[in-house]
Structures are given as structure tokens and as C-alpha cells.
Write a structure and sequence with these properties.
The protein is α/β, with parallel strands linked by helices. Helix content is 45%, strand content 22%. It contains eleven helices and 14 strands. The protein has a five-stranded mixed β-sheet. Strands 7-6-8-9-10 form a five-stranded parallel β-sheet, with helices on both faces. α4 runs parallel beside α5 and α7 packs across α8. The longest helix has 44 residues.
Length: 363
Amino acid sequence: VSNMKRASSGHVYFTLKDTGSEISCIIWASTARRINLPQNGDQICVNGTLQVYVQRGTYSIIVGSLRPVGTGTLFRIYRERLERLVELGLTDEERKKELPEHISRVGVVTSETGAVLHDILTTVRRLNPMLEVMVVPAAVQGEEAAESIKRGIEALNKEGSSDVIIIARGGGSFEDLWAFNEEPVIKAVVNSELPVISAVGHETDVSLSDMVADLRAATPTAAAELVSGSYGLLKEKIALLENDLDTLMAEKIEVYRDVLEQFRVFFLTHSPKNRLVELQFRLGELDLKLRSRIDDILGGFRNRIEALKNRLEVLDPKYLLEKGYVFVTDDEGSLIKNKEQALKKEELNIHFVDGILEVYERR
């Protein structure tokens, strides 16, 4: 990916390159809102439709979806660990524990200084003031984070008074959330006797702890709503349904927008006006070719006429007379070619360049 630009309209433009070629790509604003946009330098595989810009005769890919390719060491480790977890059946829903029907106490493993803890406590107080919250401070980023989160989960299991555990962290980059992909955290979640809710990052962030946890919450706030009672569960369900509805509507609108755009491009390409312009251009080309051909033919005829004219001038008797030659005819106009013919005639006509001299035999 290179030359990544986002217009004020929300459309995203970039160039997709390999070692020997490149092509322009466009992500419409409606699509850009529902996918993770790439950055300059990312290696991606895109899926879309080919568009021809008629005025310039260029091609672009209208991107419908994309996926990262070769995003680095961390991503490869993530994929390898995920494949191993799937093979071991640790992501299977059948293995996961159900949340208790009534939750009176929840243990929270997160940073005590971040906004996440404040959001969880505020949500719990608003939805279920009777719910007790036991906070186990833990580092959620850095080299010590994985062991810190692991110790928090094990401490809550050992203490045993909580009904459910929430491990939580706010949003961040893939690297920022890496602690929740580390094996100590994954093992602690899998081995926990208490149900574990993983609430890491935003809804689009999926960590390995999310995959093996008994329940994944889209956000830390959503996790607090889940454990706060039926009202929180209902609100979360409504929010999920709204999100699904928004996504479905966005997809439908995008489909119809794409169809509309295809019709627009089709009618633009096949409009009578454009066809007339093409025919006028073609007519102009044919006119030039015809004129050039006619000029060539006329030139050839002129050259032939000139050559014939020269030949006729050479063969014209007048041409010879002007050089001093004469020719002789009898009184009937027949050409006298030799002396013997001349002696037999009583009357001869000698043709000069300036007239005819009549000669009669003297008797």
C-alpha cells in the first residue's frame, strides 16, 4: 500500500504495488466505515471490482474487502497460537462455562490507573449498586503484563469469593494488546475454575484471551453491563442487535449503491452523447483518410496525364515541323512516303510549319 489518502467525503484512495506493477484502488466511504483500513507499507490482499475511467482510459479496483498479508512476526505468532488453540479444542463453545444466573460479586483484573476501571465501576454502580467489585491491579502492557494478569486470575481463583472474573483493557494497537495473546494469560484463563469474561480493546480487537475465555465482551463497559443483571444483559443484547441491524442496513445500502454506481458508469459509457462523440471522431478520421486517398489518386492521374502530354508533344507533327522537317500529301490528303509515290502524282502539298505549299506537275 502506498499514497494512502482519505478525502473529506470519506472515500479512501491508495495505490497497490508489487515489484513490477501498480494499480489504483478506491474504498468508498460506506465500505471504509466497516473495515479496518490499511496503512502505507502494509501488505494486503484485496477483493473488489474493476472500474474503467473512460475519460482517461485507466483502471481502478473498487475495494469491497481486504485482509492483511505478512503483517510481521507478531501476527505470525498470533496465527500459530490460534491454530494450536483450535487444534486443542480450547476455543470450542462446548468447553466454556456458563455465567452464574445470579452474580453478587465480580473480580476485575485490570490497571488501577486507567480509564477502564473507572468505566467498569461507574457502569456497575449505575446498573446494579448491590454488586460487589473486587479489583486486582495488574499491568496490562509491557514485558511484565502477561505474568501480572496471570497472577491476578490465579489470586481470584484462590480467594474464591467472586462469581465471575473480568480481565479488561482499553483499546490500543495490536502490539499494545499483545499481553492478552501471551501463553501465561491464555493458560490462566483456560485453567480458571471461575468463569472468565475477556473485555480487551474495542469490538474490532480480538485477542487470544477473547477466544478461550468463557465469554467475550466487546468492551470493558459491555462486560460490566453483562455482570450487572438482566437490565445490563438486555441492553447489551439490544446494542448487539442494533449493531447487527446497522451492519445489515449498511451492507444493503452499499450493495444498492454499488449497483447504482454500476448503472451510472454503464449509462455514462453507453450514453448517446458519448456514442455520438465517438462516431464524430471516427467520421473525422475517415474524412482525413478519404481526403488523403483522393489526393493520392489525383496526384497519380496528374502524373500520368503529364507523362502522356509529354509523349503527345513528341509525337505531334507540329513538333517535327518546328524543327525544320516537312511532310508531303497528295491532293486527297494521303501521306507521300517516298519518291516513287510522288512521281505518280500531278499535285502535291508540302506541309511547312507556317503553311502548305501546293506543287503541280508541268506538262
